[in-house]
């Protein structure tokens, strides 16, 4: 393939072995090449530093442990996150909601469906009192027979994108855009909120600290990889912007 790292050729067999791990990627070959090259860069750096753990993976982990060090998240940082993401730290929140579903089918292509859904959304923005009528007429969900009502929904009960949108709405608010999920296109309206209990900071502080620590470590790791890649002599491929499972 004409690819080399620090003067050492990357053979096709290494890429072929790696490509099996990237079959779900948009470009499996590109991702496999990037992964093989990045691992070679890391192993060369481990060798330069005299890190001689057992397997290749062990040497890479030892390299990260030595070179990528971030401070622990302190109490103030955890508290700022807790206060800034207050909605995430509630238990038992419920939202009464209704929707109109436009289901994608072979006889109803997405663009045609989107045009219809947009026109119904515009009609509801002008006359929100028509929601039940239009749900009964257009919705492909069984809830259409009862005005689109989904009853009371808890956080996490719906698919993530529906859940995220719904709990951002205020009671009575109609979403200003169509929501696309694997079920189709939705017009969503929040009706009544039932607030749950606030989870105390002390209860979730370890979870927050762990999340902040992971974020800091990933940022530091990406910076470190950027430095190593910039310093290495890489021929035949450009790694700028490449992502790797090594940094997840």
UniProtKB/TrEMBL annotation:
Domain of life the protein comes from: Bacteria
Protein name: peptidylprolyl isomerase
Domain PpiC stretches: 92-192
Reactions mediated catalytically: [protein]-peptidylproline (omega=180) = [protein]-peptidylproline (omega=0)
Lineage, uppermost ranks: Bacteria, Pseudomonadati, Pseudomonadota, Betaproteobacteria, Burkholderiales
Molecular function (Gene Ontology), one example: isomerase activity
EC number: 5.2.1.8
Enzyme's top EC category: isomerase
PROSITE patterns associated with the record: PPIC_PPIASE_1, PPIC_PPIASE_2
Family the entry assigns: Belongs to the PpiC/parvulin rotamase family.
Stored Pfam families: Rotamase
Keywords: Isomerase, Rotamase
InterPro entries (alphabetical): PPIase_dom_sf, PPIase_PpiC, PPIase_PpiC_CS, PrsA_foldase
């Amino acid at each position: 393939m004409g690819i080399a790292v620090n003067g050492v050729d990357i053979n096709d067999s290494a890429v072929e072995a790696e490509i099996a791990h990237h079959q779900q990627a948009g470009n499996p070959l590109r991702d496999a090449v990037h992964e093989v090259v990045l691992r070679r860069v890391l192993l060369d750096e481990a060798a330069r530093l005299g890190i001689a753990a057992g397997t290749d993976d062990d040497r890479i982990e030892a390299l990260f442990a030595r070179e990528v060090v971030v401070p622990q998240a302190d109490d103030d940082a955890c508290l700022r996150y807790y206060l800034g993401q207050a909605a995430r730290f509630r238990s038992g929140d419920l939202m009464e909601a209704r929707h109109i579903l436009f289901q994608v089918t072979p006889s109803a292509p997405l663009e045609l469906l989107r045009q219809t859904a947009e026109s119904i959304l515009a009609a509801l923005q002008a006359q929100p009192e028509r929601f039940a009528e239009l749900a009964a007429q257009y919705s492909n969900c069984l809830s259409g027979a009862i005005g689109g009502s989904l009853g009371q929904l808890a956080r996490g009960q719906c698919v993530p994108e529906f859940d995220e949108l719904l709990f951002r709405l205020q009671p009575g608010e109609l979403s200003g855009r169509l929501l696309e999920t694997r079920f189709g296109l939705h017009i969503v309206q929040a009706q009544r909120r039932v607030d749950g209990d606030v989870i105390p900071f002390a209860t979730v502080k370890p979870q927050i600290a762990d999340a902040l620590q992971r974020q800091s470590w990933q940022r530091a790791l990406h910076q470190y990889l950027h430095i190593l890649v910039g310093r290495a002599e890489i021929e035949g491929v450009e790694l700028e912007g490449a992502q790797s499972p090594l940094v997840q």
